[in-house]
Amino acid sequence: MLLSTHPSSPASAKVRELLARHHHAPSALVQMLRELQAALGWLPPAALQELASGLGVTLAHVQGVTGFYRFFHTRPVGDYRILFSDNITDHMLGSRELMADLCQRLGVAPGQTRADGRVSVATASCTGHCDQGPALLINHHQVLTQLDSARVAEMARLVEAQVPVTDWPSAWFDTQDQVRRADVLLGPALAPGLALAAAVARGPEGMLQEITQANLRGRGGAGFATGLKWALCRKAPGTEHIVVCNADEGEPGTFKDRVLLRSHADAVFEGMAIAAWVMGARRGFVYLRGEYRYLLEGLQAVLARRRAQGLLGNNIVGHPGFDFDIEIHLGAGAYVCGEESALIESLEGKRGTPRIRPPFPVEHGYMGHPTAVNNVETFCAAQQIAQHGGAWWAGIGTTASTGTKIHSVSGDCERPGLYEYPFGTRIGRILEDCGARNTQAVQVGGPSGLCVSASEFGRRMGFEDVPTAGAFMVFDRSRDMFSVARNFAQFFAHESCGFCTPCRVGTALVVKRMDKLAAGRGSRHDLDVLNELDKLLHTTTHCGLGASACNPLRDTVAKFRPTFEQHLQSLHFEPAFDLDAELSIARAVTGRDDAAAHMEKPA
Ligand SMILES: Cc1cc2nc3c(=O)[nH]c(=O)nc-3n(C[C@H](O)[C@H](O)[C@H](O)COP(=O)(O)O)c2cc1C
Ligand code: SF4
Known about the structure:
Layout: H1 10-21, H2 29-40, H3 45-55, H4 59-68, E1 80-85, H5 88-92, H6 95-106, E2 119-124, E3 136-138, E4 142-144, H7 149-160, E5 179-181, H8 194-214, H9 226-235, E6 242-247, H10 256-263, H11 265-279, E7 283-288, H12 296-308, E8 325-330, H13 340-347, E9 371-375, H14 376-388, H15 390-394, E10 404-411, E11 417-422, H16 427-433, E12 439-444, E13 450-453, E14 471-476, H17 481-495, H18 501-518, E15 522-523, H19 524-540, H20 544-548, H21 551-559, H22 561-566, E16 568-570, H23 579-590
Helix pairs in contact: 1-2, 1-3, 3-4, 6-7, 8-9, 8-11, 8-14, 10-11, 11-14, 17-18, 17-21, 18-19, 19-21
Bound molecules: flavin mononucleotide (FMN) and iron/sulfur cluster (SF4).
Flavin mononucleotide binds at residues 218-222, 224, 246, 248-251, 336, 338-340, 373-375, 378, 543-545.
Family: Belongs to the complex I 51 kDa subunit family.
Pfam family, one: Complex1_51K
Organism: Rhodoferax aquaticus
């Protein structure tokens, strides 16, 4: 039986304060868990019990939600919780060696909490700072970029001296925007309220027509027509309509939304208010990924200013009855929550399991209300369209891919950062501009995107040729594309939410095969099995995560087959079992190693 917390304990006081502030609403569970953990360092069972009682839900429900999110801890995890970014570009910049160095200095094993409870060191999939890696996250709050040996040594000293992270050198937490090429979205900002006033002057119908005429397609990856999404949501019956900004940005290699939220928050919020005007929504949410916790105060400040300026709240821009406000909801380390229906589940305080569709969120979304979910960049584009008109936007880019697109460039190049171009720009042009040399491949759109080889650098960015959610990871000829594909396979296996068997088991089997190839024990048969797994995952999984989990593998096998074959012991089938490897320990222990007892290796 779980004992409840003592009523006078700090944990109990915090639980009661949270319950009161969130009006005992189960939909606030994820936010309450996050705040509780920030206060206590972890989530003790007794506090979870008290939370469950206060919300009128079962303890099993609270534990189920807690267990879903990687940033929640039901055991003590150290006063300093350090998570190194595990993305391939961080690896390329030496993150694994730096992590090993820090673990050795602190006397802690990766993934473990030190016996004295002071520190734990582990990995997180991608912190969203690939342009200035290697990066890490401390206590799910502060981000440290541009790590090197000197910084790691000093960090170890500060941890041992128990210096609070807030007192560490402030320059360490200076993340940069690194805007290398600006066009309409990253260029000079519009004065707050200007575009909103233009939208109101057009009326909701007129504004929707401009978005439709602009042929704006969502920037979150799938490229769904924004005008159509807003029209469907607008006409869906419901007592209220909801606008959601998807700021989960979990795709490794993507960091454009981080910069838009930090330096162009007015444009994001204004785009959301324009969407609300079109759809008649009164409530909006920003779903901010947990890794971007450090942006929260800045965003809250912009929201407060906009309320004071009459750009949020009641009678926006002086228009009677135009009432709309925005809340920020923080994620807690689950990539799948970027999928819009999983995101809505998470917003409702639940596990982020993707929903069965139809019904689609535009009809049945947050709390059953018609809900339009859009990417951060899509809202910025909507603000520009409100100001300059749909025809103007449609005149930029190509017919099928209008306007500009922001690319998050990282990897082997001299100038990583953000590059905004009109759609239709050649891949080779981006490579020239970012100072990439001797490039063998670019991973466009992150692990779930496309791997483009050198012979294809004439291809153009756009939905009709190379679609993208924003990531542009550059690999020069010194890189082993097999290792890149293996890192991506590990990413998907790590992030699978486990809801459906083909994805949960399939992604793990892909990693096992890749590990076998990496250990030099593979044969062509393994490539055939990987091909079968690709087909299975693509056709049978419940959401886009599982469906795209084999994309990088398929591309790299097709385009870099010799690299894969280098990892095969034999092109012909042979058993996966390596007798010599398996017997090596026994031979060492017994001191017996008869030459005749070894398997013959194929020539
Ligand atoms: C596994 C998974 C992760 C996703 N992550 C994001 C994300 O971080 N940001 C985003 O805008 N869309 C993400 N999406 C796409 C969203 O489901 C949705 O299509 C998008 O937010 C719609 O916005 P848009 O129409 O403006 O593109 C993800 C999809 C999947 C399947
Ligand atoms: S495909 Fe993977 S991530 Fe998507 S629901 Fe199934 S298990 Fe979860």
